[in-house]
Amino acid sequence: MLPLIFFSNNTHKAAEVQAILGQEVLAYTHFLGRVEVIENGDSFEKNAHLKAQALYPLLADKLQDFCVLAEDSGLCVQVLGGWPGIYSARFAGIQANAKEIAKGAFIPPSVSCKDMENNRKLLACLDELNLKESPASFVCVAVLCGRVRGQEFSQSFRGECFGKVVKAPLKPNAFGYDPLFIPKGYSQTIDTLKEKNHISHRFLALKQVQEFLKTLEA
Fold first, then answer.
1. End-to-end CA distance of the chain
2. Could you tell me which of 12, 6, 8 has the C-alpha nearest to residue 66?
């Protein structure tokens, strides 16, 4: 089995990826020191590629055949014009109101915020618009690149989980926006669903990764 090296400094996300793929996923820090990437792409796919392309050359001299997995994900809220989108982890840093955000009239934030702060920002936007909910979707784009039998490759995979964001109680140990998102066809927020790892945006993208990995190892 090809070594699968995941670009992330988020231990919760790494554990979720390993659970979905059902195989060992190595943290890149097993081979390297901490790597920082400026995520200044204008799409999930571009940001995921930035991470993968930053890591690949650093590992190419250390390993023979291997795969690098990177992903970018976020929440797209319809009433906010699809934002926070690529700024989901930095949403609370946007110094603009809901109507300005919906028009894209804001300065892109540069610093990540705590999940609780981002959740508060989303709830404040719903309050400002006098709404209890809005259609939304979680999006994940995974990029897999590497080298197999001397041949380099790069491929991207997109997963999207549709549903809605709702006004719900804040949770101190929240992971992302999970406590405020109800998937289509369900009545509970995704953080309370046992089947989360079988319906999430990350699952939908990573199952495609899993199928592609099979072709590499054939």
1. 10
2. 6
Closest CA to 170 of 120, 106, 112, 98: 120
φ/ψ of 135, rounded to 5, equals: -55, 145
36/39 Cα distance (integer angstroms) = 9
Q: Please, are residues 89 and 74 in contact by the beta-carbon 8 Å criterion?
A: yes
Sequence-ordered strand ranges (E) for the chain:
4-6, 26-27, 66-77, 133-148, 151-166, 181-183
Does the annotation mark 72 as catalytic? yes
CA-based Rg of the chain, rounded to a whole angstrom?
18
Contacts of 30 (CB under 8 A, 6+ apart): 5
pTM for this model (two decimals):
0.93
CA distance to 138, 142, 176, per residue, from 190 (Å): 11, 20, 11
pLDDT in tens, 94-140: 999 999 999 999 999 999 999 999 999 999 999 999 999 999 999 99
Catalytically annotated residue among 61, 72, 127, 191:
72
Three-state DSSP class for residue 176 = coil
- Measured CA to CA, the distance from residue 179 to residue 165 in angstroms comes to 9
